[in-house]
Design brief:
Blueprint: E1 2-9, H1 26-38, E2 44-46, E3 55-64, H2 71-80, E4 86-93, E5 106-115, E6 128-130, H3 136-143, E7 148-151, E8 166-177, E9 180-187, H4 194-206, H5 214-221, E10 236-242
Parallel strand pairs: 3-10, 5-6
Antiparallel strand pairs: 1-3, 1-4, 2-3, 5-9, 5-10, 7-8, 8-9
Helix pairs in contact: 1-2, 3-4
Length: about 260
């Protein structure tokens, strides 16, 4: 049986999604919790690996097992064995040809920026602080250069192992809610550090350090050294993964980020 699940987690105290030998990872915690429910080892596959300090409101995973459990037993059994900073949202069976990563057709991230002179005292691990005033009209103008299908070599980390730098951004918008500026970005897929590098460029433009056209110049350079601005991880959230309708995977109805009350 192949089973799919949605997971949310606070990335503050994780080394990232991927299991490592010595550090605490989301993958390790989820696999250990599911393995206790199954009474045998369970290996999970995710839609997109997140870095240390990056959060997820809607990570999608799948795993295969011969063990028979009711879906609510997988859900509540796993959550009973998970720490408070990670939780399964739902669990359901899925077609055998489904793959959490390779079946995904779109992914959405949100990047949260606290934009005020004083740093955060309450949500400091959950957003990025920028004390300089950000002009979202300038950021939005720069974002238009990045929408569509492009070679994003300048916006990926040098350690990126993807075979192609070509990615298609379907939507990239910036909004302000009080003291918070939110960058929402939806694409077919993302390169290593791509969202954080885009956020870094847009922040530099929004605060007036760089001109709007700089976003296009960086893109056309096809050279990571042309930008060199990587925003911190703590403001980044994976918020939605989309699949073909035939897989019947529920989407995140709140695909753009909503601030806590």
């Amino acid at each position: 049986m192949k089973i799919v699940a949605a997971v949310e987690y606070c990335g503050t105290h994780f080394c990232g999604w991927q299991r490592l030998k010595s550090d605490r990872s989301v993958q390790q915690c989820v696999e250990e919790a599911l393995s206790r429910v199954a009474n045998q080892p369970i290996k999970v596959f995710c839609a997109g690996r997140t870095d240390a300090g990056v959060h997820a409101r809607y990570q999608i995973i799948h795993f295969e097992t011969d063990v028979r459990r009711k879906m609510h037993s997988w859900l509540f059994g796993a959550n009973a064995n998970l720490a408070s900073d990670v939780s399964l949202i739902w669990v359901k069976p899925v077609a055998d040809d489904f793959h959490a990563r390779f079946s995904a057709i779109a992914r959405t991230y949100s990047y949260l920026i606290l934009n005020r002179p004083a740093r955060a005292g309450l949500y400091h691990p959950l957003l990025t602080w920028e004390y300089r005033p950000l002009d979202i009209s300038l950021m939005s103008a720069a974002a238009r250069y990045l929408q569509g299908l492009h070679d994003f070599t300048s916006y990926r980390a040098q350690a990126c192992q993807s075979s192609s730098p070509m990615r298609e951004i379907h939507q990239l918008n910036i909004e302000r809610r009080g003291d918070c500026v939110i960058i929402n970005i939806r694409a077919n897929a993302f390169l290593y550090h791509m969202v954080r590098n885009i956020a870094g460029v847009l922040i530099a433009i929004g605060c007036g350090k760089e001109k709007v056209e700089w976003a296009r110049q960086v893109l056309e350079a096809k050279n990571r050294a042309a930008a060199g601005v990587t925003a911190p991880p703590n403001g980044l959230y994976l918020v939605n993964i989309e699949y073909a309708e035939r897989f019947e995977i529920p989407g995140n109805a709140l695909s753009n980020f909503h601030l806590p009350a």
